[in-house]
Design goal:
globular, 12-stranded antiparallel sheet, mainly beta, 5 helices, 406 residues
């Protein structure tokens, strides 16, 4: 970890004097008119771009300017500004985030995605927020839908959807170096560089390290410090004016301190011990999109995600293969039809520890899905109806239907 931090400082020093184009400066919210703010596009409600004012859901958008002005250092900190979201900090490195009540460290009714990649962990039925340490300067916006979205996104989207969308590589050209230090977050360093090759190819690479000290407790010596490192790259290519390709790759690692209760067979039958949860992983993601000449689009996305989480209680490894296809078109006047297919394979492995043992230790689950949704314009610019359904087949409960009418 020390060598990684030193390498990151070296990268920051190397890139510091590279000039950043003036056009990369963020646009202030005061530069937008009221009409532009109301026309802000969201994609999480209908799986298609639509003005925020026309979205048939309780949706809230945190844009890049909000992120810059907030001073927040983590995604849960940013989610505190969303009306209707419950955000609580359990200790110095763990969070509880949910919508519409039922809060806890793992909220199994809330779907969280980063660029369309689900970060939901099936074993724990929730999200390890301490693992996902994004470069907030690279986040374009965060769309939060409070309410059911299962007809488009699946069974986990019962109480809401959080869709984190990062910026196109063309919008992060030049060099960014940031560093922070303090009494709690005692070290945080980020280095990012973006460049262009030809007229249509844009690249971005980054590396980040953050270290955080333990909190305070009145009954015991806390052990909830946190150390994280992450590096990755993004490539965006405009194949033609209507077709684009995106490739992303990231790797991460770290450890999160925690205090757990160990059961004993003799008095006092339990004791508190300090432990470290070690985590690491990475992913590869590819996305191809094409705008159709007849007011529609096609998109294909696939990703491979691998992660491991090991502490005194669990030794868990998960590899996920995901494929998603979507087609949007206008079959009839006043009708916008969107349909799609999906497949996900999850290879799960749980090795035995002193406290837990699983039988069988390995398991592979398959999730098949399909959806269709029709947006019908009843009165132009005044009244729309949306109806559709999602079909899923999983290895636990078989076939499930999730209809929707708005």
């Amino acid at each position: 970890m020390i060598s990684f931090a030193l390498s990151l400082f070296w990268l920051a020093a190397t890139l510091f004097f590279w000039p950043m184009p003036a056009w990369c400066a963020p646009k202030s919210l005061t530069d937008f008119s009221l009409e532009e703010l109301m026309a802000m596009e969201v994609t999480s409600v209908a799986k298609a771009p639509q003005p925020l004012s026309q979205a048939a859901a309780a949706v809230f958008v945190i844009n890049a300017e909000d992120i810059r002005r907030s001073g927040a250092g983590t995604i849960p900190d940013l989610l505190r500004m969303v009306p209707g979201m419950q955000v609580a900090k359990i200790d110095a490195n763990k969070w509880a985030v949910s919508a519409r009540g039922f809060n806890g460290r793992f909220a199994n009714k809330l779907l969280v995605m980063i660029d369309g990649r689900s970060i939901y962990t099936p074993l724990f039925a929730g999200v390890h927020w301490e693992i996902h340490d994004l470069v907030l300067e690279d986040v374009e916006r965060i769309e939060v839908v409070r309410g059911p979205g299962g007809s488009l996104w699946g069974a986990n989207a019962v109480n809401g959807v959080i869709n984190i969308i990062t910026r196109h590589a063309a919008h992060t050209q030049g060099t960014l170096v940031s560093a922070a230090a303090g009494s709690e977050e005692y070290a945080s360093v980020t280095a990012r560089h973006g460049w262009q090759s030809g007229d249509d190819n844009h690249f971005r690479i980054f590396a980040k390290y953050s270290g955080q000290g333990p909190g305070e407790a009145s009954t015991h010596e806390p052990s909830d410090d946190l150390h994280r490192h992450r590096a990755g790259l993004r490539f965006d290519r405009e194949i033609d004016p209507r077709t684009s390709l995106t490739l992303q790759a990231e790797a991460y690692g770290g450890k999160a301190g925690q205090t757990i209760v160990e059961p004993l067979l003799i008095a006092p039958y339990a004791r508190q011990i300090n432990d470290d949860a070690d985590f690491d992983g990475g992913f590869l993601l590819g996305r191809w999109q094409k705008e159709l000449a007849t007011a529609g689009d096609l998109s294909v996305q696939a990703y491979l995600d691998r992660g491991s989480y090991e502490d005194f209680v669990f030794d868990h490894r998960l590899t996920t293969y995901d494929f998603d296809f979507q087609h949007r078109f206008l079959p009839l006047p006043r009708h916008e039809l969107t349909w799609g297919l999906g497949y996900r394979r999850m290879d799960d492995r749980l090795d035995s520890t002193l406290l837990t043992s699983f039988a069988p230790p390995k398991r592979t689950d398959h999730l098949w899905s399909a959806f269709v949704q029709d947006r019908i314009t009843l009165v132009p610019e005044r009244l729309e109806a949306t109806l559709g359904t999602k079909w899923e087949h999983n290895d636990y409960t078989g076939v499930e239907w999730q209809p929707n009418l708005r």
